[in-house]
Design goal:
single chain, 244 residues, alpha/beta, Rossmann fold, Alpha-Beta Plaits, 2 domains, eight-stranded mixed beta sheet, four-stranded antiparallel beta sheet, 7 helices, 12 strands, globular
Length: 244
């Protein structure tokens, strides 16, 4: 796949994953490092694009805004379970009824195997084995048990060395499509930059709406039709887009 061509600023709606796209993935979610120039670059891009810029992440909106100093006019968190617009109000789904039972299962696994890390996002749960690759099977089994304990109110989302339980029916693709139905995104051409399996539904949604997905990182089977090799290449491409 080739790098994405620079789109017409007047027609582009830009959607960006956070981890693995805007920042390098870290052993623990709170250990990521944000390039000092990134928030300013995102603000400039948002202005150039008429506000059609959103960060779409599995993280909570509050974390996205904290790391990026609320540089993005729109933020989607927890794969679509939370969202925030330019006015600052955060909308979120109600907690799934089975999340407490799922949390208990995953907490037991993390307590039994301290090298596993349970990230409790409130409306979603993520069990990471990045610090202990040998515990992948253990983590996956725990996630399946937690999914069963949730009684159908959660769905399992695989990711890079993480198994995540999120509210049933929530996806980045659905979130992208919802934003594209309203101003300022409506009528623009969506471009989604993502790196993980969690971004595939957004790649598909962008394609179906006349746009494009851009895979960041090592090549793999994907619905994206363009490619950037790493986070540094993303930053350079965003800077070129901002320059017009």
């Amino acid at each position: 796949m080739n790098p994405p061509a620079l789109p017409d600023q007047a027609q582009c709606a830009l959607f960006l994953d956070f981890d693995g796209v805007l920042v390098e993935i870290a052993p623990r979610p709170q250990a990521v490092q944000v390039a000092p120039a990134l928030p300013g670059l995102l603000r400039l891009l948002a202005t150039r694009l008429g506000g059609r810029l959103a960060v779409v992440s599995g993280r909570p909106v509050a974390e996205i805004d904290d790391f990026l100093a609320r540089a993005a006019p729109h933020a989607v968190g927890l794969h679509g379970a939370e969202s925030r617009g330019p006015e600052g109000k955060v909308s979120r789904l109600r907690p799934p009824p089975g999340i407490a039972a799922a949390r208990a299962v995953l907490a037991t696994a993390a307590n039994t195997h301290p090298a596993l890390y349970l990230e409790d996002k409130g409306l979603a749960l993520a069990l990471h084995w990045r610090g202990a690759p040998e515990l992948e099977d253990t983590a996956r089994q725990a996630a399946e048990q937690a999914l069963a304990a949730a009684g159908g109110s959660l769905q399992l989302q695989p990711g890079k060395m993480v198994a995540e339980l999120k509210p049933e029916g929530v996806s980045k693709g659905a979130a992208l499509a919802a934003l594209m139905r309203a101003p300022p995104f409506a009528g623009a051409r969506p471009l989604m930059l993502g790196d993980d399996l969690t971004d595939e539904s957004a790649f598909e949604a962008a394609r179906d709406l006349g746009g494009q997905g851009v895979l960041v990182g090592p090549p793999r089977k994907t619905a994206a039709t363009a490619h950037l090799p790493d986070v540094g290449a993303v930053h350079r491409w965003l800077a070129a887009l901002a320059e017009g």
